[in-house]
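Escalation from tier 1.

The customer reports that the assembly of two entities below gives different structure tokens on two consecutive runs. Tier 1 could not reproduce it. I'm attaching the input and our single run for tier 2 to review.
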Amino acid sequence: MDRVAIIGASMTQFGDRDAWVRALLAEAGDAALDDAGVDGDDVDHLYVSNMASGEFEGQTGVPNALAHDLNALPAYTQRVDQTSASGGAGIYAAWQSVASGASDLTVLVGGEKMTHKTTGEATDVIASLTHPVEYKHGVTLPSFAGLTARKYLDEYDAPRESLGKVAVKNHRNGMDNPHAQFRKEVDLETVLESPVVADPLRLYDFCPITDGSAGLVFCPESVAQEYTDDYVVVSGVGGATDTHVVHEREDPTTMGGVVESSNVAYEMADRGPEDVDVAELHDMFTILEFLQSEDLGFFEKGEGWKAVEEGVTDRDGDLPINTSGGLKSKGHPLGASGVAQAYEIYQQLLGDAGARQVDAEVGLACNVGGFGNCVTTTILEQP
Amino acid sequence: MTDDAPSFDAHRCENGHLTYPGHTRCPDCGAEQTETVDLSDRTGAVVTWTTSTATPPGVREPNHLAIVEFTVDGESVRALGQLTTADGVDIGDDVEPVYAAELREPGAGIREPDSQAWDGFRFEPA
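Tier 1 run:
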């Protein structure tokens, strides 16, 4: 089977941006087309990953707007919303469009505009994904993280400090990412003494609220070299769901969607967790980096925290995780995050990651929606 | 408890699987859920808890929350709910449901007020 290649990628500055969602998407889309060296009117399919542009700014129909702005008419367009995993789901949709033969050139742009809302308002937009029996209690995604972190620390006898070390590591990585929202080192003491947000988690255990966008350009591998010598291959991609109601999970410390989606991706790529050289995980909360690193099979259940303590996941460790700085320091513009994860892996595989560069031939990105409710795992490789 | 007292309904299918809330088809076996079990006068155990301080519009601050497990005829069922207090609460502690007419202010957040109920049960340390 002809595999699917990524021949171009882009990411805008993440952070507090003046631009609104249409302009953010156009900025990343324009840059992705330039990176691939293709024109807008070459595009067959155009996908936009976005969770909530209607709720955040009253702008719907953004894929059509983007097609018009990029001179991509009459491309087929579609919006992909899978909450925080919209970006990963967009990669899945874009891969499907090329793998099926429906499109010879697909552009995916993920983006979100959030910072004009207060923290409470933005948190509420995201919490609107919850079931009515959860929402009426005022539950937020950060409070799910607090509930899960307490259970994890109790169950596996992990020290609170180990969560803080995830934040320290990812902030350190973000220092070298010019697109990151925070390029500021933090020490463990600062993390552990920051204000409580969802006990036992504190401010520095959480990613910020962010504006930003990122783009990818896909085509069949058989024609990739007609465009460029610098491309990567989507060797595996999988998506899966877990319970909508979070408390209905048998083991609160296991993310079934991560397990299932990665099994599909590993099988498609004919790879296992031991083959992964670098990974971008969805560290919307520090605890999520532990859960994913275990549920992806990198470490035994309950041992992910030890890997962080031992430096295994540092940039110079055996399995660098979140070399981009992760959502934690790079920022988390919902629909953009999964696309930006792939952008980092793309750069790492092409040797374009600058000061963040690690030695990698196979990379993995795991994008988590809700509190593990819907997940996509993507494996990218050098051709 | 009188007949018009609010109930805290878990839902059961013909194979005895119990869930809160109910689902169109049983998440365990796919069968229809045919009866309810009222949890309001039962004691549950805290699976985990948190105190949330960054709360959305219309939600009390701080907001103490717990996941609580009940056991009914050997079948376990869990529910998430507010805690009346977090003082002294720990994993494994017993808690009892206490009715509250309004758990958060309807309409203050993004959810359409008429789309769902806003009353329910908080958990009180037993």
